[in-house]
Write a structure and sequence with these properties.
CATH class: Mainly Beta
CATH architecture: Beta Barrel
Structural class: mainly beta
Radius of gyration: 24 Å
Number of domains: 1
Number of strands: 30
CATH superfamily: Capsule assembly protein Wzi
Strand content: 35-45%
Helix content: under 10%
Largest sheet: 24 strands, antiparallel
Length: 552
C-alpha cells in the first residue's frame, strides 16, 4: 500500500525538469559585412480554445502541419478554456487563425489577475428518422430537434486558473421504432443486446427532456512543471479525430481530480507528459442497476529527442463499482498488466489499455497517427504474444495538406475497428461488462461512439482559407458485429447493421460569429437489425465571442 501511494504521488515528479536544465543555446553566427542581418522571427501569439474537435481546435492542429504552431502530442487533451501558441507572422497562418489570435499580441500574459467572458456557444441538430450524433458531450441527438448551449467565464491569477462554463441541452426525442426488450417501464428503452452489461439506452424516454451540467468547468494550479485540478471537463485520450478507444467527448464530462505534468517536460532524452485522473460516473435512469462507478486512468506520452515530430504513448483506464473499492484499489492504475497478479484483483473491475503514436512532418504537411488497444487483462504474457487478437481494437488515420493558390486543401482519412472478426461471446466486447463496470456516463459511451462491435471508415476533403472552410465527406459505419454473429446471423434475410453517409460541412463568419454547418444524407441497412432506413441530418453550431480579457 505504501509503495503504491508513494508511486502515485511521484507520478508528476517523474517528468519535472532538472534544475537549470534547458536546451543548449544555438551558436550565434557573426554577421557578415554587407547586408543587414535577417529580422528576428515574430513573437508567438495566443489562440483561445474552449472545445474539443470543433472547427478552431481542428484548425489549430492543422497549424502544426504547416509549421505555424509548435508540434504537440495531441494524445492527452481537454475541452476547457486554454491558450495555444501560434508562432506564424500575421498572414502566414493557415485558415482563419489570425482572426482567432487578433486580440493577443504575444505569448505573455498580464502579471495580475485576468478575467474574461468565454464565447457563447449554441448547437442545433435535426435528424429526420433516427438518432445520429457523435462526440457531442451532454447532447443526445435523437430524432427531431436537439439543442445545446454554453456560456461562461474564465480567470487566471499566477499559478491558478479556473473556468465556470455550464451547459444546458434540450432534446425533442421524437418517436422512432426501437427493438422490443420485453421489459416494462424504463426497461423498454434499454440497450437490447447487452442487457445488464451496458447503460446505453436506445431512447431516453418517450418524449422531450432537458439536461444541465457544469460542462467545461475547472479549477487548476500549475507550478514547478506539475498540475493538480478539479474539473468536469470532457477529456480525450489518443490521437484519433473521430474515434478513440479509451476516452472521448461522446458522453457528458464527469467530476474528476487530475494530477500530472502541466505540459511536456524535458528529461534529457526527450519530453515526457503524465496524467492521472480519478472520477465518478453516473447511471441513466434506464440502467438495469443504479450503482455508482469509479473511473481512474493513467496516460503517459514521450517525444524522443532524436525523431522530430514523433510522439508515442500508453494509456489505461479502470472502471469499478464504487461499492467494491477498498483502500489499495483507489490506485488500480498502478496494478500490473496481467490478471491475477499478487496484491489483489478486484473481480468487478474492467481495464482497457492502448498504445498510441502521432507523427507530424511539417516539411511534407503530413500527419500520421494510430492506436491499438485491448479490453480487459490478458491472462499471461505468453498468451498475449501467441494471440493478441481477442478483445483487441484499433484506430489509424492521416491528414495531408496540399497548396491551392492562397488556400489549402486538406485530405483526411481515418479508420477504426472494435471487434474480433471471429465469432465470440458478447461478454468479450469493448465497453460492455457485467458487475457494473461498463464504460458509460449518464447513458452515453465514454469511448468510441461506434460502440461495441463497431467499425468506421472516414474520408474527407476540405478547402481552407481565411474566409472559412468547406468540404465533403464520406463515411461507412458498421455496428454491433458481435451481436450479428452470435444472435442475428442464424435469422433468415437479416444482414449486417451498416450505415453509409455522404455529407457537406462548412465554416463561415457572420460579423464576429463563427458558424459551422453540416448537412448529410445516410442510408442504414438493418438499423438495429430492425429495418432499412434513410436519415437526413442537419447541424449548425455558432461560436460568438462576447468579450475579451481584462486585467484587474
Amino acid at each position: 500500500m505504501r509503495l503504491r501511494l508513494a508511486a502515485a504521488l511521484l507520478l508528476p515528479l517523474l517528468a519535472w525538469p532538472a534544475a537549470g536544465r534547458g536546451e543548449e543555446p544555438a551558436p550565434v553566427a557573426a554577421t557578415p559585412p554587407g547586408p543587414a542581418a535577417l529580422p528576428a522571427p515574430p513573437p508567438c501569439r495566443l489562440v483561445p480554445l474552449d472545445a474539443l474537435g470543433d472547427a478552431d481546435d481542428d484548425l489549430m492542429r492543422l497549424a502544426e502541419l504547416t509549421g505555424a504552431a509548435p508540434v504537440s502530442s495531441q494524445l492527452i487533451r481537454r475541452a476547457g478554456h486554454r491558450l495555444a501558441p501560434l508562432c506564424a507572422p500575421p498572414g502566414a497562418a493557415p485558415g482563419w487563425l489570425d482572426r482567432l489570435a487578433a486580440a493577443a499580441s504575444a505569448a505573455t500574459e498580464p502579471a495580475g489577475p485576468v478575467l474574461e467572458l468565454l464565447p457563447v456557444r449554441a448547437q442545433l441538430v435535426w435528424n429526420s428518422a433516427y438518432p445520429s450524433g457523435d462526440d457531442d458531450g451532454l447532447l443526445w441527438a435523437g430524432r427531431g430537434l436537439s439543442t445545446q448551449a454554453r456560456l461562461g467565464v474564465a480567470g487566471r491569477w499566477g499559478v491558478f486558473s479556473a473556468a465556470l462554463a455550464p451547459e444546458v441541452a434540450w432534446q425533442q426525442n421524437d418517436w422512432f421504432r426501437t427493438v422490443d426488450t420485453g421489459l416494462p417501464g424504463a426497461g423498454a428503452f434499454r440497450d437490447p443486446w447487452y442487457a445488464g452489461q451496458l447503460d446505453a439506452p436506445q431512447r431516453f424516454g418517450a418524449g422531450p427532456f432537458a439536461t444541465a451540467a457544469l460542462g467545461q468547468s475547472f479549477v487548476r494550479a500549475d507550478a514547478f512543471g506539475a498540475t493538480v485540478g478539479l474539473s468536469t471537463e470532457n477529456l480525450w485520450l489518443g490521437p484519433g479525430l473521430r474515434d478513440a478507444l479509451l476516452l472521448t467527448d461522446n458522453a457528458p464530462g464527469f467530476p474528476h481530480l487530475v494530477l500530472g505534468t502541466s505540459g511536456p517536460a524535458d528529461i534529457g532524452i526527450g519530453a515526457l507528459e503524465v496524467q492521472a485522473v480519478w472520477g465518478r460516473l453516473d447511471r441513466s435512469r434506464y440502467a438495469a442497476t443504479r450503482d455508482q462507478r469509479w473511473f481512474s486512468s493513467l496516460a503517459v506520452t514521450f517525444q524522443p529527442r532524436w525523431v522530430p515530430g514523433l510522439f508515442v504513448g500508453l494509456g489505461r483506464t479502470f472502471i469499478e463499482p464504487l461499492g467494491s473499492l477498498q483502500a489499495h484499489r483507489w490506485l488500480s492504475i498502478l496494478q500490473g498488466p496481467l490478471k491475477h497478479q499478487v496484491g489483489g484483483d478486484n473481480l468487478s473491475d474492467n481495464q482497457e489499455a492502448s498504445a498510441w503514436f502521432r507523427w507530424v512532418v511539417p516539411e511534407g504537411r503530413l500527419e500520421l497517427y494510430g492506436e491499438w488497444g485491448r479490453d480487459d487483462f490478458p491472462r499471461s504474457f505468453a498468451g498475449l504474444v501467441r494471440d493478441p487478437r481477442p478483445t483487441s481494437a484499433w484506430v489509424w488515420g492521416a491528414q495531408k495538406l496540399l497548396p491551392a493558390g492562397a488556400r489549402l486543401v486538406r485530405v483526411q482519412v481515418e479508420m477504426a475497428g472494435l471487434y474480433d472478426p471471429r465469432p465470440a461471446p458478447l461478454n468479450t466486447s469493448w465497453y460492455a461488462h457485467g458487475q457494473g463496470s461498463d464504460e458509460t456516463n449518464q447513458g452515453q459511451l465514454l469511448g468510441a461512439p461506434i460502440g461495441p462491435g463497431g467499425d468506421r471508415q472516414w474520408l474527407a476533403v476540405d478547402l481552407l482559407g481565411t474566409e472559412g472552410r468547406g468540404g465533403a465527406y464520406l463515411e461507412r459505419a458498421g455496428r454491433n458485429e458481435l451481436v450479428y454473429w452470435t444472435a442475428i446471423q442464424p435469422l433468415p434475410r437479416t444482414g449486417h447493421d451498416v450505415e453509409l453517409t455522404l455529407g457537406w460541412r462548412q465554416v463561415a463568419f457572420a460579423w464576429d460569429a463563427e458558424v459551422s454547418l453540416d448537412a448529410s444524407a445516410a442510408w442504414r441497412w438493418n438499423r438495429d437489425f430492425v429495418k432499412n432506413q434513410p436519415d437526413l441530418r442537419l447541424a449548425a453550431a455558432v461560436r460568438w465571442p462576447v468579450g475579451g480579457a481584462a486585467a484587474r
